[in-house]
Amino acid sequence: MADIRGALAGGSVGENAVSGDRLVADGGVPGDRILVLNPVSGNGDHRERVRTLADRAGFTVIESRASGEAVEFGRLAAEAGADLVAAAGGDGTVNEVARGLAAADAFDAVTFGVVPTGTGNNFAGNLGIEGVEHAFEVLANGERRRIDVATAEEDAADREGSELFLNSCIAGLTAEASASTSPELKDRLGMLAYVVTGLRTVREFDALPLAVEAACPDAERTWSGEAVMVLVGNARRFPAEGRSQANCEDGLLEVTIIERTPPSNLLQEAAVHRLFGDETEHVTNVRASELRVDVRRDEPVGFSFDGETAEYEALTMETGERSLEIPVGESYDPDPE
Ligand SMILES: Nc1ncnc2c1ncn2[C@@H]1O[C@H](COP(=O)(O)OP(=O)(O)OP(=O)(O)O)[C@@H](O)[C@H]1O
């Protein structure tokens, strides 16, 4: 508790003076509702609106000032005893705050709220949360479901790397694809925008020699070969048609492996959509409770976890079934198929 009071009082959280002063003056628990706000997500025009609605709903607002800070604030909020911690931002901010809750080992103690103020807001969309005002209605009255949380651990001996994703993980993302994905395309296609850009910019030497091992409900499955990307969905799947929301209460990851094909086949967005069809020979789809992705070359590969990138050589992913309580919108479907 001292930590978050220190953060609030010490001015390390930007313009949180009003709530911070009041809470510190109280000398008590800094509110049982804390909202971590990314003021620059999306087009950055949501700050005052979110603050007003959050204030009405009784939240203490903490603003992130830099990348990564929302992880720390999520952890501090949970350690301070908050029982409702919300993230206002895009998928990246939601991911950061959830990582903070994980670091505090607080998934069983905290309800997590999502206020979509990012560019793609893919995770919020998959939970039926349609906008900022709607998010506050959902926080007040939405049905509270327990959602799977996916983790990825590095397979190195020292096991230093550990990641978390709520929505999706993409393996094989080049730095250029990640940097050159336009906000317009992200807005239109969500995470698929990275895939489209990735496939458009893929070059001969970008092929990924991969070995994939998947623990599927019926059997172990293995795949090896040259891939362009591996898409792993927790709340998101990558279908040819129909809903892109996955069942995110089943303890399973939706895995799509896109094999390398001649680049000319991958240039059109329509072709990318076709790629996800079941009939194509270039795509493998499996559902897995655990997935190991092993890169069979010397340099590491770019992975995007809910849009935040990091490099690894080998990762084992799994889901914690129904590990985090989140209020969801009316259109959320626990079993979208
Ligand atoms: N004050 C800040 N200044 C600069 N960057 C920040 C700040 N606070 C957070 N960030 C970073 O902003 C990045 C983008 O945030 P986020 O992913 O939430 O929004 P987005 O990219 O607009 O939306 P989406 O991921 O849904 O498309 C994250 O990496 C986050 O760490």
Can you walk through the features of this model?
- The protein has 337 residues and is α+β, with helices and mostly antiparallel strands.
- The chain contains eleven helices and 15 strands.
- The protein has two domains: 2-141, Rossmann fold; 150-323, Tumour Suppressor Smad4.
- 29% of the residues lie in helices and 32% in strands.
- Strands 5, 6, 7, 8, 9, 10, 11, 12, 13, 14 and 15 form an eleven-stranded antiparallel beta sheet that branches.
- A hairpin with a 4-residue loop joins β8 and β9.
- α4 (69-79) packs across α5.
- The longest helix has 13 residues, at 91-103.
- The radius of gyration is 20 Å and the shape is globular.
- It binds adenosine-5'-triphosphate.
- Residues 38-42, 64-68, 89-93, 96, 118-121, 186, 307-308 line the site of adenosine-5'-triphosphate.
Helix/sheet category: alpha+beta
Oligomer: single chain
Shape-level CATH architecture of the largest domain? Sandwich
Per CATH, the class of the largest domain reads: Mainly Beta
**Number of distinct helices:** 11
What amount of the residues lies in strands?
25-35%
Fraction of residues in H or I helices = 25-40%
Question: Tally of extended strands?
Answer: 15
Largest sheet: 11 strands, antiparallel
Count of domains = 2
Report the radius of gyration as a whole number of Å. Answer: 20 Å
Distinct compounds present: adenosine-5'-triphosphate
Give the mean pLDDT: 83
CATH topology of the largest domain: Tumour Suppressor Smad4
- Note the overall shape: globular
Terminal CA distance: 43 Å
Low-confidence regions: 9-29
Give the helices and strands as they follow along the chain: HHEHEHEHEHHEEEHHHEEEHEEEEE
InterPro entries: ATP-NAD_kinase_N, Diacylglycerol/lipid_kinase, Diacylglycerol_kinase_cat_dom, Lipid_Phosphate_FormReg, NAD/diacylglycerol_kinase_sf, YegS/DAGK_C
Domain DAGKc: 28-155
GO molecular function: ATP binding; kinase activity
Keywords: ATP-binding, Kinase, Nucleotide-binding, Transferase
